[in-house]
Structures are given as C-alpha cells and as structure tokens.
Amino acid sequence: MSISHTIPTYFRVNIDRDYCKKCKRCVTHCSYGALSFNGERIVADDSLCVACQRCVAMCPGKAIRVVQNESYLPPHGNYTRRIRNIIWAQSGNGGVLLSATGNDRPIRVIFDDLLLDACQVTNPAIDPLRETIETKIFFGRKPQKLEFTIDEKDPTEISLKTKLMPHFEIDMPIMVGHMSLGSISYNACMAIYQASKELNILAGSGEGGLHPDFYEYGDNIITEVASGRFGVDINYLNKTAGIEIKLGQGAKPGHGGHLPGEKVNNMISQTRMIPKGSDALSPYPHHDIYSIEDLAQLIAALKEATRYRVPIGVKIAAVHNSAPIAVGIVRGGADFLTIDGFRGGTGAAPRIIRDHAGIPIELAIASVDQRLRQEGLRDQVTLVAGGSIRYSADLIKAIALGADVGMVGMPVLIALGCRVCQQCFRGLCSWGIATQQEYLVKRLDIDVARNRIINLFHSWNEELKEVLGAMGIDSVESLRSNRDRLRYIGPNPKIAEILGVKHAGE
Amino acid sequence: MYWKNYTILPEQFRNERVFDGCGISGYINIDGKRDYGTKVIDMLCILHDRENGLGAGFAGYGIYPDYKDYYALHFLFDNDPSKEKVLKHLEETGYIIQSEAIPTKTPSNVDHPPITWRVFYEPKEAKSISTDDQIVNLVMQVNERFDGAFIMSSGKNMGVFKGNGWSHEIANYYKIADYKAYMWLAHSRFPTNTPGWWGGAHPFNLLGTSVVHNGEITSYGTNMRYLESFGYKCTLFTDTEVIAYLFDLLVRKHKMPIPIASLALAPPLFDEIYRMEKKHQIALKNIRATYRSAMLNGPFSVVVGYNDTIPTMIGLSDRKKLRPLVAAISEDENTIYLSSEEASFKRLMIDDISSYKFREIWHPKSGTAIIARLGDGLLRNGLEKPFEKLKLSVIGA
Amino acid sequence: MIENLVLSELEKRKAIEIDAAPDGIPLIYQDLNESIHEAIREGYDRIVLNNVCGQRFIAASLQGDLELIINGLPGNDLGIFMDGPKIIVNGNCEDHAGNTMNDGAIMVDGDGGDVIGLSARGGKIYVKADVGYRVGIHIKEYENKYPVLIFGGIARDFLGEYMAGGLIIALGLKFLPDGSIIENEQSICGGELGTGIHRGKIILRTEEDLEPKLGVGAKLFEIAPNTRKEIEPFLREFCEIFNIPYEMIGKKPFKVIKPISKRPFGGNYCGQIV
Ligand code: SF4
Ligand code: SF4
Fold first, then answer.
1. Looking at the domain assignment, is residue A51 inside a domain?
2. How far apart are CA A165 and CA A146, in angstroms?
3. Coil, strand or helix at C130
4. In terms of Cα–Cα distance, which of C217, C262, C77, C135 is closest to A274?
5. Residue A70 confidence (pLDDT) above 90
C-alpha cells in the first residue's frame, strides 16, 4: 500500500461521545462523506473533511467540533505546509490544481490601509437618520455634456437637445457579481435576484444563460455574454437591464470557463442550451474578438441586436495594463466597464492563476479612473469594481477611489451560509449554494436566503450613509473619486502615490 | 508664497470661539449705472464678525470702460524677476495694450504686500482655439507653472482685488472706493482650509466669472478631478476655485442657460424629482446623471458675477441650506443685493448720507438660484420651483 | 444568383427594395439596419437590399419568417443572434456571419470570411465556395436545435474548434469564373482540425490523410452508411441551391471527425485540498 500524502490532515472532527445522541444527522448532512456510523458510534475520516461546518451546525447535541489538526509538519519558513501540500497533490494527480472562491494568500489588503475623513467644525456632518442622503446611481453611459438651446425671441423657452442614452437607476451603488446558474444553485440564484429586485440593485447572471423563471427579475439583471455564448438568445438579450461582455474575470484572467459535464443536469442544460452531461467549455478568448476593434464590433452588434435599449458593458480582470485597455474599451463604445480585482471570486479556477495573476482592485480603480480622466472619458461611463469588496468599508473606499458601483460576490454567499471552504468546484456544497444536487440545493431556503441578502445590503447602505453623513456629503455621487477624503497608513508610499491619496497626517 | 499679515486680532476674536464662515456681499445695478466702491465696502465691513483678518477681496464689473475690449489681467507677483518673466511671456503670445501697477495706498497699510500689477491684453489670433480658451490656458499655466506669479482675474472690463488682511484694510489698500462699477462682489474671510495667503483670498475668478463663497465644499475631490479631465488645473488648494471653473465649464463652454447650470450645481433631491411632471423628471435625471461630478456638496452659499455674455449676478446656496444668503431689491427696483446677512442692507439704510430704501428683503430657497441680469432685472428670485417661469422642451427623449 | 429558389414563394410575400447607397453614398450600418426594422414594422417580409457595401450587423437579432436578399457585400456579424429569418447573399460575406445564431438560414453565393457561425446553436449556413479560419467554432446543439454548416470549397485552420454539437461539411470543390465546377487542388482544411471538439461532427469530402491535421480531442473515422444517409438531404439541398451537379459529390469519399470523448479535458484538473 502506498503512503498517503494527505496526512497529516488540515482538520480533525472531534465528536464528544457524552453529547452524541447517535441520531446520525451529521452523517446525512456531510456531503463530503467524512462522517459515517459504524454501528456503534459516529466515526470521522479527517482526510475528507473540508471544515464546511455543516455537521456542527446541524448536530442537535452540539457534540461536534471541527478543529485544526495539531499534528505538526516539521516547520519550514520557506517550504510552508501549503507549498508542500501542493507538491504532494500534483505528484499524486499530475493535473492542474483547481480551486474556488478567491485568492486566499495572505497578501496585504490595500483597503485596510486606507482611512476615511470625517467632518469637524468647518462643515457640519449630516445625520442620515433624519436628513436625506442619496445613494441612487444612474447606470449606463452619459453624454459628455447636455445641449440646451435658448429660444432667441423668448429666453424662457429652453429645450434639451441631446439624444439621451439608455441608462437606468439603482438605489444603492451595489451589484451582485456574476455567478451563473451552474456555478451556484437555482435557489441561490433565485434568492439573489429576488433580493436585488426588492432592493433595486443589480445582479449579474453569470455566463450560463437565464432560466425562464428569472425573466421576471430581468429589470435588475445584467446578463453576461462570455466566450461560450451559453444560453445567449434573443430572450437573454431582451429580458435584461444591461448586457456585459465578459472578457476576463479577476480570479482567472486570461482563462476561460469550464463547467464539467456531470453538473450539466436537465435544468442547466435548458438554461445553457447545451445537451445534458456535456462539458460547458468557455474558450479562453472570444473568437470574434482578437483586438480592440473587434470588441467595438461586438459592442456595436449587441447594441444593434437590442435596438439601443439597454447599456452594453465590458468586464475585464484587473491586470498590469488595465488603464489603457479600459480607455480602449470605453472608446469602443462600452456604456459601463467592470473591473475585477485579483482577489475576485470563482466557482472553479486553476489555483496557479487564482493565486498569482492580476493586480489588486484598489490600484486598478485608481489607475483606470485616472487614465479615463486624462482622456476626458471618465464621466461618460459607469465604472463597476469588485474582487474583492468584503464589507461596506471596502465599498466606500472603492467609491472614494473612483468606482461608481461595487460588485460583490462572496459576501452574498457568506450571508447565505457559505463557510468559505473553497470546494465549490466539486459541486458538493453542503450549504446548497455551489451545487446542483437536488438534496443539497433543498437545504437553502429561498425566502430565508433572500431576506439575509436584503438585510446585508440594507446595512451596507446604511453604513454608507453614515459615512457620507460624517463627511458632510448628501449624495454618493459626491464621494466618487473624492480621494481627498481618504488617507493612507500603509508601509508603502508608492501605493499612496498610485492611488492619488495623501498619507495620513498630510 | 505666503505673506503673513501681522495685524492684531480685534478684541472679540481673542477668545477661543471658533467661527465658521465668511462674509459675502454683492449687488448689481440693472440700468448699468456705476457706483463707487464705498457702498459695497459698507455692506461687507458690517459683517466683520464673520472674518478673522486673514483675507478679503472685491470684484468690480464695469470698472475699465476705456479698455473694455481687452482682457484685464490682474496679477500678484512675489518679486520683479517673476513679473518680468510673465510680462515677457505675454509679449510673446499676444499684445500688451497697457501694463501698469495697480494703484495702492502708500505707504502700505498691510504688511509685506506683493507686487500688484495689471495688464490689458489681447492674445494673438489662433485658428484652433478661441481667445477665451487661450486666456484660460494662460491662467492655468501662470498659476501652475510660473513661480512667484498669480493671476487674480482675467475677464474684460472687470477686475478682482484681493489680499491678506481685514476687509477694511484690503479696501483701503486697493482704493476700492475710487473704482466705479455696475456690479460689485465682496468677500471677507475666515480661513480654516488654506493658510491666509493673497492668492487664496476671494473672489476667485476665471474670465468673466468671479465667485465669492462661504462654506466648504465636501465634494471638492470629485469636482476637482472632474474639472481636470476638461483641462482645468486646480492649483489653489481651495474649494472655491472649483466653483468658478465649474461655472465657466457649464455656462461658457457647455453653453447651459444659467438657471439650468444652477440645477446641475445644486440639483433637487430625487424624492422631489419623482414628484415632478414627466418632462421635468427626464431633464433633471439627465442633468443629475451627466453632471453628477459637477454637483456641489457640503455647506455653501455663493455669489457669482459673470460677464462673458450679458452681465449677470447669481446667488446660490446648498440644497440643505447650511450657509446663509439673503436678498434684497431697492425701492426703485433697479438694484438687486445679496449678502450673508441682512445687516448689510440695514447698514445702507442707516447711512446718514444716502439712506437707501428697499422694496423687499427675502430669503431665497435652498439650492435655488437667484439671478439678476443687466438690463433685464430680477430673472429669478430664488423662490421658484426648478423649471418655473421656463418653458422646457425635451427633444431627445 | 440564387433568385430562382425564392421565386416560387414570391407571391406570398410582401416585398420591398432598400437602396443601401442612396445617391451613391453608402448608408452607415445604424441607418441601414433601422430602415430594415422600419420595413418589418410596416409589414414587409421580403426585403431586398441593394448596393450593400460592408455594413455590419445586418439582420442582427431578427426573428420570425422573413427573407432578406442582399445584393452586394454584407459586413461583419451578418445575422448575429438571428432567430428564424432566411438571408440570401448574392456575393461574398465577411467575418462572423451567423454569430450566435439561434435559427434561420444564411446562404452565401460566394466565399465566406473567418469565424463563420461562431457559437451558432441552430440554423443553416451554406457558403458556395471557400471559408477562412476558425469556422464553425464552438457551434453547439441543443434539443431540436442543430446547426448545419456546409461549404462547397475548402476551409482553413481550426475548423470546428471547441465544437459542441451540430454538423460541419466541406466539399472541396472549386468554382471557376466561367461557371464550371472542378475539384479543388488545395487541401480541404488547415491544421488543428476540430481541436477541443466534444460533440457533433465534421465531415470532409477528401482523399487526403487528415490524421496529422487533427487537433486535441478529435478523432478520425471512416463514414458510416447511416451517417452518409443522414447528410444526404442537406447535400441535395446545397447542390440544388448552388446549381452543383449532385453526381459530382459522389466522386470522392467522405471522412468524419468526431470527439474522442464528451469530456476532452476532464483529466487535466485535480482538486485535492492543499
Ligand atoms: S448529529 Fe450530532 S448527535 Fe447526531 S449523530 Fe452526529 S454527532 Fe451525534
Ligand atoms: S459556496 Fe459552498 S462549497 Fe463554496 S466555499 Fe462556500 S460553503 Fe464551500
């Protein structure tokens, strides 16, 4: 028998025999098969445990604890446990290592090094509970200027001449990031769309098409046209508030998508419009886009196809030269631009790319915003930024750096119960989120999930208003790009320079 | 580039109270009659509780009728070499009609004054760019890149006089009482934001637009970065500058009617917009969407003077009315006044020589522009709904 | 001209002619397409476009029983997202014709450009002569939707890349200016043939050895009798439309390219906890 290189395991499942009622609930709930009943007692195979905490939450006797395995590998500062594990995994399988969620390396988060300004004396803070503070956003393209003409004979006759562009209003500067039906479950999608409609914010459809059940939420959904063109038909283009051409994703810039055939069940096959059981492969590039003028062509094609009714945008991953790319995209006719930072989430991505490619969103927002300004284009587009906005503080700082809207993925899933176990690509999510298996999906109650999302973003928006009020600002529009209200306290002055933010104390 | 003013603070300011605010005043004679500066000095100086001796200034419109076709450039220079450098640059790029020191009180009643200079100037014709835009570029260039030089104002038949000191000191120093203008703006300062240096005093000017401002713009960063994308350089470290540039951008460059421009700067709340008729909703939503970065946030009241087309005086306060603004109209309806406090008008009433009379004194609504125009009188009294008195049509909808 | 095909239906349809270059000045695509939409709104269902010169997105997302006859050269993305109409092009067409098409037909009486039929899910694209690179990339089938791409001439590299369903046929003929039809000397396809294919089939009429040209995941087969029978109606239709003597087709054998598996890259990834 060969030696197992998965030992020592990361986690240990401790079952307190005094508390265990032997009800076996944990066994049914563990979708990873780590727990079983041997006729006498519950036993755990630690090597299968992913610490998703489902059994802990479900155990009526509060008998289970999942703990870190104290069994210790010989320490090494360079060959960390993680690196040794990667080598063992690869030497055992010979394949590209998959992973999910976002980059989990402990790289310093720039958002955490930024501090917010608040009013003292020279201007009054505003009390958000008693006075209006506006968080509404116009999503879509704006003209550079409005043309008004005044009648020569009667100067009170004023007409607005500018041809108005398609845009719509959302009540909070928040968009739920693109998570396709396939990468997450029907119930998770439904909860997200219902909550988005209720809150009047936006949600991305992901690239898996739009299930007919979701059409009624279309006014709050941005559908995605990715290289696989899954589910892209005339309904998909029409029953939507906007369309996003996905060129890249923060978690896997330069990489396509891959939904394995076993996840393509009846429903997924229907929505993606591909046969059941066949892989859904998204090619790395769009094969009608090999250059920026081809992108302009696809943007124009979508505008033609939708008869200029909805805004068409483009999503790119934050990479080294995002700024000039962004300029090209806006020149190419995009009405909105989404940038996804290197910490952005994913349902499945090669670990090597997830963990090592791209740049932080904070820097990308700053440089894209700045470059668009230099070209006189910034105010014409809506800039959406995500990857990763973890809580309201990140959202507020992203807006102050220059984003119009924050794109949020993982926090929504965490609100639904996700424990960030990073196993989404296996389709076994015990919380009913990243899975297509019916018995697991059932665990996610749509009503409860919807309300949790509504609560989450309601509280974010209230916190945004608190901060705006403290800054003496009564509309979120006046926070955008207001880098004057940020200060940097991190160790690297170069970062402050790129962000266009002064150091604290300056 | 700092000039310290060593004037001793008057008694009432020596306690620890912190005043937040400045005094602003202004008026316009509709028939174009030109008044000596004494009246506006009275209006401003009565507001002395609103200043702390760290800056004051005046803008007079109609003061240079003999040179009305030329750009009147008002300069501050640190020293002679910086003056020579700028004058040489002007010679190279255009025609200097007249170049002279701005008359000031001698001996000086303020400490360490800079060189104050004026040039009547005409840029050389250029194909691709209007003379107005050439002047804008010149102002941006001098204020950003010429060490020891600063352009206070650059409009035609108007000028800004400002410096570091109490309002009465600055008035005396520049001999404001000797100038005659049909429109006057005045400002006394209580700086908190930027050190009290001469260039940082109000009014702020670009071409025919002059702004006096009370308050602090909390959206400064957003406004500044918006203006930069149109080529404006915000070098003065102060929020008032952006108001002047925004006004220039909206009214002169984008040719927005002034009532509409004021809606872009201080738009109604969405809740109000939704209660309006459809057409007004469309217009306002588009104004808010397109000019979202031009919106001024935070407490402010401003008086703007403008003469790039028909000379106009505009008063505007923030939409939450966090800074004061009072308006008045004279008995003969020929003069419209604006000020931070009613005291300015009372001051004129108790003047034993002229004892002015007012038909009405009123408080304009928050976020609502009051507009008075040469020849036309009071176009908007600041009490109207956004499109009241206007016939709006929306063509692109 | 493929005019003869539609004459029979002519009486049934309400026809209109649109000049794409009034007064000799070509319309911009927005205006041309808007005039097509206008014609449709007015109830026309047979639209003849004359003097077309590179205008893009013609028939984009059009639905229903319509017929467009294009005299001239339609630009990129002809019939993108189209769902039902039939387009006849008297001349060549540019790149990306039939992009993400859901249903309908595009008949080109000439050559086609690159990336024809990208991601098409249904409908027919018949090109009389040659096509370019990456043709039929990622076409897919679903339920009763089954895209069929037939080319009378040859194709270049990456034919049927990522193919996820449907049928691609190339015949390897050559059409001379005098109207005569001969066997094409050139190779029927380029390299990386069917790379990444995981469903559907590519059928090539050729005697050459295709083995060295196969891409990842593609496998070469002799044609099975039932497959031959299955494609017969499509071939007859194609020959009829473009006036190709059907007997010519039988003069060379067909070869079939199919996926090795439905999951060509399944083994490339692993997911151990690290
Ligand atoms: S769920 Fe808890 S009580 Fe029930 S068998 Fe498992 S450990 Fe024991
Ligand atoms: S969604 Fe499910 S599988 Fe994915 S990280 Fe969260 S708990 Fe784990």
1. yes
2. 11
3. coil
4. C262
5. no
Res. A464: pLDDT tops 80: yes
Looking at CATH, the fold of the domain delimited by B2-10+24-395 is given as Glutamine Phosphoribosylpyrophosphate, subunit 1, domain 1 (3.60.20)
Proximal ligand: closest to the CA of A18: 1
- Preceding amide of A106 cis, omega within 30: no
Q: Cβ(A444)–Cβ(A191) under 8 Å?
A: yes
Instruction: Give mean pLDDT, residues C30-59.
Output: 94
> Does ipTM come in above 0.90?
no
**Tokens 């940038």, located at residue:** A339
Cα–chain center distance at B192: 19
Confirm or reject contact between A371 and chain B (CB < 8 A).
no
Residue C14 class from Cβ within 10 Å (0-12 exposed, 13-18 middle, 19+ buried)?
exposed
Are residue A217 and residue A90 in the same domain, yes or no? no
Q: Which domain holds residue A72?
A: 3-95
Q: To 5 degrees, how large is the angle CA B46–CA B50–CA B56?
A: 80
SS3 B244: helix
Minimum mean pLDDT among A261-275, B232-246, C1-15, C46-60: which range?
C1-15
- Three-state DSSP state, C245: coil
Range with lowest mean pLDDT among A100-104, A357-361, A381-385, C263-267: C263-267
Question: Which residue among A78, A95, A112 closes a domain?
Answer: A95
**Predicted TM-score (pTM) of this structure:** 0.87
Q: Is A31 in the pocket of ligand 2 (CB under 6 A)?
A: no
Q: Look at C270 and A98 and tell me if their CB atoms are within 8 Å.
A: yes
For the beta sheet containing C218-222, the strands, ordered from the edge strand earlier in sequence to the opposite edge, are C15-19, C46-53, C67-73, C83-90, C103-108, C124-127, C148-151, C164-170, C199-205, C254-259, C218-222
For residue A30, the domain's CATH number is 3.30.70.20
Evaluate: CB of A232 within 6 angstroms of ligand 2.
Answer: no
User: DSSP secondary-structure letter at C116?
Assistant: T
DSSP states along B346-394: HHHHT-TTT---EEEEE-PPTT--EEEETTTEEEEES-S-TTTT-EEEE
Q: Tokens 């509404």 label which residue?
A: A136
How many independent structural domains does chain A possess?
2
Which H or E element spans position C87?
A: strand C83-90
Condensed to tens digits (0 to 9), the pLDDT of residues B196-252 reads 578 878 899 999 999 999 888 889 999 999 999 998 988 766 788 899 999 999 999
Picking from A118, A133, A192, the residue whose alpha carbon sits closest to that of residue A464 is A133
Whether residue A176 is found in the same domain as residue A73: no
> Mutual orientation of helices B278-290 and B258-265 as an angle, nearest 10°?
60
CA distance A25 to A443: 13
Q: C and B: touch, per 3+ CB pairs < 8 A?
A: no
Q: Pick the ligand that lies closest to the CA of residue A422.
A: 2
Q: Are B61 and B219 a contacting pair, CB within 8 Å?
A: no
Among the candidates A95, A121, A152, a domain finishes at A95
Average pLDDT over residues C190-202: 92
